[in-house]
Design a protein that fits this description.
The protein folds into two domains: about 55-290 and about 390-480, TIM Barrel; about 295-385, no CATH class. The protein has helices at about 100-110, 130-140, 150-160, 165-185, 200-215, 230-245, 265-275, 310-315, 320-330, 355-365, 365-375, 390-400, 425-440, 445-455, 455-460, and strands spanning about 1-10, 20-25, 30-35, 40-45, 50-55, 55-60, 80-85, 145-150, 185-190, 220, 245-250, 280-285, 290-295, 340-345, 385, 405, 475-480, 500-505, 510-515, 515, 525. Strands 1, 2, 3, 4, 5, 17, 18, 19 and 20 form a nine-stranded mixed β-sheet that branches. Strands 6, 7, 8, 9, 10, 11, 12, 16 and 21 form a nine-stranded parallel β-sheet that branches. It has a three-stranded antiparallel β-sheet with strand order 13-15-14, with no helix packed on it. The protein is of the alpha/beta class. It starts with a strand and ends with a strand. The protein has 15 helices and 21 strands.
Length: about 525
């Protein structure tokens, strides 16, 4: 007797193979049998007639490190069909920490989050094993893998200073990275627009990438530029890849700002030429024409030297150089009318949902001065949405079969007392939106679309028993209506559930049934093997 049988579904197995109708028997958390008809009995039979049965979706680019520790109702990824998230991206991770760096690293981590800082503490989490124990004790719906954020790593060893590491510090960076890789981290992420990761030079990254290569681990990157200097930023990463041999994953590939619009083919050709040369390069993308990050991303990286206290002092007495460089970056991101304040983390909720241009008019102040005042009054903890991407470029990048889907978001709660603001809708709609856009624009066959959110990210991460529906694989499974699946989140009303996801199984346990969470907490922390 099986634990579950999924009957009569259209199986899209994650390999790009043609869809086929089959039943799936599940036993002890794994796929036990796939056949045209599974005639054995089961404790529970789930009817998938008229529905598509796929591997559970894998969100390769997530910032949900802390989300499983916040509340039991963090389920925005579950309702999208996501069963696995890779966290610690953009150089920002929940670990490693040391007693000496505790306060500054915790401040750094929370300053980049779209979570109220009072909701949890990182106390007791110094390494991957500590994190794994904390998540297991709390319980979670899905699976979480961990990347080591270069910014967090640098903060643990050097603090928040704008200089090169000494030879001794370089060895400590390598040793700390090795410790976490040996504990099961999947790789290291770079956030080269976010201090302290942005303080580094290329040579530092080459040396750390060589450590990753020793462990066959991944290097992901938020590049130094996705706007005017994007091609130079790609060149830097190709140089690091050539010199280290590491597998490079370019995060949220896009062309930001009108001067770059229409150059998607040129960008993709440059990356493909590097693959043809023998480099291992993959990418991810979210299906939106707006980005989201801290408002501090508008500031020059040198303004962060010394951490948050030093930054606040510079904001109180801004130099003309700081104003000029902030204004330049604001224009790169679409200008003040294109920058929407999504969260002030409780400091000034009356500013949320307004653009910098609107606030500038309210304050009767220049837009740059407005940004400086907002950051200073909110202790630099402000999240923004930036409308600066061309839809045609987004769809062209989406069509590339070396590019998978990553939300760049969080696993949020639908409880408005916990998720108090309207974050970027990608945290609530990325995967249904991707499938809807594929359907409406006829971008690719369904089996290719499913591969981009299952088999491809699993291959990149080395998850050999996930991202594929075959006998013996872990029974992480998503079942959806291919005609009904769609996102419902909007930029000013984002905390909405998508439509069309019927069932989700994690480790052979039903966590979403008939579109409703069962409350099952069968996930945990995945470790690289």
């Amino acid at each position: 007797m099986y634990d579950f049988i999924l009957k009569n579904g259209l199986v899209v197995d994650g390999s790009r193979a043609k869809p086929y109708r089959a039943d799936i028997g599940i036993q002890n958390g794994r796929v036990a049998k796939i056949a045209a008809q599974v005639t054995e009995t089961a404790k529970t039979v789930l009817d998938a007639a008229g529905l598509v049965v796929t591997p559970g979706f894998i969100d390769i680019h997530s910032h949900s490190d802390a989300c499983p520790l916040v509340d039991y109702t963090t389920e925005s990824k579950l309702y999208q069909g996501v069963t696995t998230e890779m966290t610690g991206n953009c150089g920002i991770s929940i670990l490693p920490n040391t007693p000496e760096c505790w306060n500054s690293n915790q401040e750094y981590f929370f300053n980049q989050l779209e979570l109220p800082t009072g909701q949890l503490s990182l106390e007791g989490i110094y390494d991957l094993n500590d994190y794994s124990r904390a998540v297991t004790a709390h319980g979670c719906t899905g699976n979480y893998g961990q990347l080591i954020g270069h910014g967090t790593l640098r903060g643990a060893v050097m603090g928040f200073v704008d200089r090169d590491p000494t030879p001794e510090e370089m060895e400590r960076l390598k040793a700390l990275l090795r410790r976490e890789l040996e504990a099961g981290a999947f790789g290291m992420s770079l956030g080269l627009i976010y201090p302290p990761s942005s303080f580094c030079k290329t040579e530092e990254l080459v040396e750390l990438a060589k450590v990753l290569k020793e462990y066959d681990a991944l290097l992901t990157v938020h590049m130094r530029s996705e706007g005017p200097r994007i091609f130079q930023a790609v060149d830097e990463m190709l140089d690091i890849t050539r010199r280290s041999g590491v597998h490079l994953q370019i995060s949220h590939l896009k062309l930001m700002g009108k001067p770059q619009w229409g150059r998607a083919d040129e960008l993709l050709a440059k990356i493909q030429a590097a693959r043809d040369e023998g480099l291992t390069i993959t990418c991810d993308q979210y299906p939106y024409t707006a980005t989201s990050t801290s408002m501090t991303a508008l500031l020059p990286h040198w303004a962060h030297d010394g951490g948050v206290p030093a930054l606040i002092q510079r904001l109180k007495e801004p130099t003309q150089k700081l104003k000029d460089e902030t204004g330049e970056e604001m224009e790169n991101r679409g200008g003040p009318a294109s920058i929407l304040v999504s969260s002030t983390h409780g400091y000034h909720p009356e500013w949320e949902g307004k653009t910098v241009e609107q606030l500038s008019q309210e304050f009767q102040m220049d837009p740059v001065d407005t940004v400086i005042q907002v950051l200073e009054q909110c202790d630099s903890s402000v999240a923004c949405i930036y409308f600066c991407i061309n839809e045609a470029d987004m769809l062209r990048i989406m069509s590339d079969m070396n590019i998978c889907v990553g939300s760049d978001g969080y696993n949020f709660s639908y409880d408005r007392t916990i998720t108090c603001t309207d974050p970027h809708p990608r945290s609530f709609g990325t995967f249904p939106r991707f499938l809807r856009l594929v359907r409406e624009h006829e971008l690719m066959p369904l089996e290719d679309a499913v591969y981009k959110i299952t088999g491809l990210p699993a291959q990149i991460l080395g998850l050999t028993d996930r991202g594929i529906l075959r006998e013996g694989a872990v029974a992480d499974i998503t079942v959806f209506d291919p005609e009904a699946i769609r996102d419902c989140s909007e930029f000013t009303d984002s905390v909405k559930k998508p439509e069309g996801i019927r069932y989700v199984l994690v480790g052979g346990n039903v966590v979403l049934q008939n579109g409703i969470s069962t409350g099952s907490r069968t996930g945990g922390v995945l470790k690289k093997r």
